[in-house]
Amino acid sequence: MDFLELMAWGSVLGLGATLVTDCVGFLRQGFAATHGFYCLVGRWLGSVHRQGLFHGDIRATQPVQAEAALGWAAHIGLGVVFGMGFAALFGPGALRMPQVWQGLSFGVLTVLVPWLVFQPFFGWGIAVSKTPEPWRMRLRGLITHGVFGLGLWLSALLLSGLVD
Questions:
Q1: Cα angle vertex 154, ends 91, 28, to 5°?
Q2: Is the pTM of this model over 0.90?
Q3: Residues 6+ apart with CB under 8 A from 3
Q4: What is the largest CA-CA distance in the chain?
Q5: Contact partners, residue 73, CB within 8 Å, separation at least 6
Q6: How does pLDDT run across 22-61, given as a tens digit for each residue?
Q7: Residue 1 burial by CB count (10 A; 0-12/13-18/19+): exposed, middle or buried?
Q8: Confidence band of 142 (pLDDT split at 50, 70, 90)
Q9: How far apart are CA 87 and CA 17, in angstroms?
């Protein structure tokens, strides 16, 4: 399997894992909560050009046009990038004979991206340190990214028979 094929499979895994994560999120929180968060992601992306990377609190930033679509597209795109990263790290073997530890450990590790990048940009501090209940929010983030990791494993398991 060449690198481009590996990345294509990784993108499919990322899409599958994102779908699993979103389904669990809808069941856990409902559509409104999940959708509301991705609107904030879109708001941040849509306002970077006028406000810069860092915001005092993204919730206080003026909404931008099509922020929901922008946020959802970014969420799905990042899931694809994470899937490609998973495939690059673990290689074709993780596609042919997926191991739950690979998906779960990679998924949990991805929580570092929002903790160290997006949450400070949103004005929430490193690992939501500036929010009223940071430990509760951190636990929710770990659970969500753990579910993403299980979604990577499940997607790889479902596709393993197709990979040569």
A1: 130
A2: yes
A3: none
A4: 50
A5: 42
A6: 999 989 887 776 778 899 999 999 999 999 999 999 999 9
A7: middle
A8: very high
A9: 13
What does the block give as tokens for 64?
A: 């931008």
Q: How many CB atoms lie within 10 A of CB 164?
A: 8
CA distance 110 to 115: 9
Take residue 70 and report the two structure tokens written for it.
Answer: 């922008």
CA–CA separation, 39 and 67 (whole Å): 5
Sequence-distant (≥ 6) Cβ neighbours of residue 5 within 8 angstroms = none
C-alpha–C-alpha distance, residues 106 and 98, integer Å: 13
Q: What is the helix, strand, coil percentage profile of the chain, to 5?
A: 80, 0, 20
CA-based torsion, 28, 30, 33, 36: positive or negative: positive
Calpha distance 156→94 (Å, rounded): 7
Nearest to residue 77, comparing CAs of 19, 25, 14?
14
Three state DSSP letters for 54-96: CCCCHHHCCCCCCHHHHHHHHHHHHHHHHHHHHHHHHCCHHHH
